Amino acid sequence: MAHRVGADAAAAEHRRRRISGVGRWLLATALAVAIIIAAVALLRVDSEWGAPLGPDRVVHAIDSQGAPEPDVEGLARAILRVHPDDGRAYRMLARIADARGDQSRAAALYAIAARTAPRDRPLRATLVDRAFAGDDIDEGFRQLDALLRVDPAVAAPLLQALMPRLADGRVRKAFAMRLASNPPWRNSLVPALLDKATPVDPALDLLAQLSQGRALSTPEADARLALLLRAGRDSEARGLWLAGLPAASRSDSATLFDGGFEHSGVTGAYAWKQNPPPGVAIATDDARPAQGAHALAIEFGGRAVSGTGLSQDLALTQGRYRLSAMVDNATDAQWPFAWRLVCRNPAEPLLTMPLPDPSTHGWQRVSAQFAVPADCPGQTLELELLARSLADRQINGSLRLDAMSIQIN
Fold first, then answer.
1. One-character DSSP codes across 327-368
2. Taking a C-beta distance cutoff of 8 angstroms, is the pair 322, 407 a contact?
3. Torsion (CA) 150, 156, 157, 161 in degrees, nearest 10
4. What pLDDT was estimated at residue 10?
5. Cα–Cα distance between 130 and 64 in angstroms, integer?
6. Domain extents for the chain?
7. CB-CB contact of 274 with 310 (8 Å)
8. Using an 8 Å Cβ cutoff, are 291 and 328 in contact?
9. What is the pLDDT of residues 269-313, one digit of tens each?
10. What CATH architecture is 273-408?
11. What is the side-by-side order of every strand in the sheet holding 319-331?
12. Which of 261, 276, 221 lies closest to 400, judged by CA?
């Protein structure tokens, strides 16, 4: 009897284990099937395999269409049934309403789309186009700002496309107001302004408006000078450049900047440019100036030199002038140094003023008269060596300059 009870218990335990094993097998199989189904669904939604099922792929497929297809409305509504806050679907419905001429419905749907999908680039681009097409300039720049914050990479082509519209004073005003908030894409403005296709005068007017609220950035200020030069307004460009300097640096700079070489730290468009070639060194000399606290010394080390590398851009108006300078020539140059003045556009020579030769010791004054014609708004003054052969350009010693001025004659 005991033996039979034991056998029945063992059989029951065996059946229990079989049932448990089958249950575990069924559970594992169900999990595997679920994983496979999920993987296939994921592939069909987020990859290029299979028909577009998920909202991302549906939207991508619709966005690639040139115009809304007949089934777009149904697809958009299907997306909203699953994802009622998908702004891209509202954008598709708005696009359909727009195509049907239902402007009020399109505007309402676009507003919902903007609230629910504020970073949707196609939406922002559409809103930019709609605003400007409707002559709502302020809204156009608001949407342009939003688009460029979402997609900074399109700033360059969009701003360039905007440049021809700067001729409209309303556009300039609204653009300047948007730029005044210092958006992150503002640094893309300068390349667009300097593009050769950009109309110069409207671009200058925009920068003038922008400068009224706060100082322009250094690239913007440089762009303003470049545009003024392009417009032939050299005198205005130089005046703006001088106005940006400390008051102490602007004294006696009406025609020539820092003729006494007292402000060596000032650089920029109309300051002295020092680009000495190999074998030449340029430095301030405060040991024995002709006047003031400093002079300029140009040292030559015996190599054949192509020039001195010293020049300054000018903006003299039409008239007659006199250039004068103090010179101490302690070189062994066989040919004279000379100040040459030329028009920048057109490139016409105005003056060649040779400097004293090395046989004269100590400071010597030299001067010469010249005239600036009406069609020469900008000039360049450059110190050159009037030598031809390579041997004549091999120089030792120093050339010192001081007390330079250009006076109306």
1. EEEEE--SS-EEEEEEESSS--EEEEEEPPPTTS-S-EEEEE
2. yes
3. 110
4. 52
5. 19
6. 55-243, 273-408
7. yes
8. no
9. 999 999 999 999 999 999 899 999 999 999 999 999 988 999 999
10. Sandwich (2.60)
11. 280-285, 295-304, 394-408, 319-331, 364-372
12. 261
Rg (CA), the chain: 38
Residue 64 token pair: 């690639």
CA distance 268 to 273: 8
Please, which residues bridge with residue 364 across strands? 327
Q: 106 or 44: which carries more pLDDT confidence?
A: 106
Q: What average pLDDT does the segment 230-251 reach? A: 89
Rounded to whole angstroms, the Cα distance separating 313 from 297 reads: 20
CA 298, 338, 259, 373 dihedral sign is negative
Neighbours of 185 (CB within 10 A): 19
Query: How far is the C-alpha of 183 from the C-alpha of 240, rounded, in Å?
Result: 25
CATH class of segment(s) 55-243: mainly alpha
Token pair, residue 184, equals 């992150």
**How many CB atoms are located within 10 Å of the residue 311 CB?**
18
Alpha helices by DSSP H, listed for 64-199, are: 72-82, 87-99, 103-116, 121-133, 137-150, 155-162, 169-180, 189-194
pLDDT level of residue 248 (50, 70, 90 thresholds): confident
Give dist(CA 301, CA 285) in Å, integer. 17
Helix (H, G, I), strand (E, B) or coil at 314: strand
273-274, strands of its sheet edge to edge: 273-274, 310-314, 379-385, 337-343, 349-354
The pLDDT tens digits for 331-372 are 999 999 999 999 998 789 999 999 999 988 899 999 999 999
23, two tokens: 């249950």
Contact status, residue 249 vs residue 263, Cβ threshold 8 Å? yes
Contact partners, residue 286, CB within 8 Å, separation at least 6:
293, 294, 295
Measured in whole angstroms, the distance separating CA 137 from the mean position of its chain's CA atoms is: 23
